[in-house]
Amino acid sequence: MLKKIALIAVVTLSLAACKTIPVTDYNQQVNASNMTKESVEKAILSGCQQRQWACKVESDGVIAGLLNWRGTQVKVGIHYDEKTYTIKYRDSLNLKYDGDSIHKKYGKWVNNLIRTIDSQLFTM
């Protein structure tokens, strides 16, 4: 009986661990030679709006991003110039962040934002 309980505990912990991913910076290249810093900023802000992220210019080359979804929250900093942009984790609420990893939804949300920003950059 004790072995069964131990096995169930190990399986449960393993499954819980599968729901997290490492926190990393997402570095993206701007694949257009005619881009200006202002046009990249415009594409990022438009992509944020389409994905329902609340974003605002924080300083030159930095946009603060916030996503609230079903009792969770994530904050990022988006650093950019005319050639690249990087999405960096800042803070979160109810996403199991432990200093190294976070709920896998974070990766999905950021990847969706990247695809939308890239789409905006392509149409500019």
Write the layout of secondary structure elements.
Blueprint: H1 2-17, E1 20-22, E2 26-29, H2 37-50, E3 54-59, E4 62-69, E5 72-80, E6 84-93, E7 101-103, H3 104-123
Helix pairs in contact: 2-3
Please explain how this structure is put together:
- This protein has 124 residues and is an alpha+beta fold.
- It contains three helices and seven strands.
- The chain has helices spanning 2-17, 37-50, 104-123, and strands at residues 20-22, 26-29, 54-59, 62-69, 72-80, 84-93, 101-103.
- The strands form two sheets. A five-stranded antiparallel beta sheet has the order 2-6-5-4-3, with helices on one face. Strands 1-7 form a two-stranded antiparallel ribbon.
- Strand 3 and strand 4 form a beta hairpin.
- Helix 2 crosses helix 3.
- The protein is elongated and about 40 Å long.
- The termini are far apart.
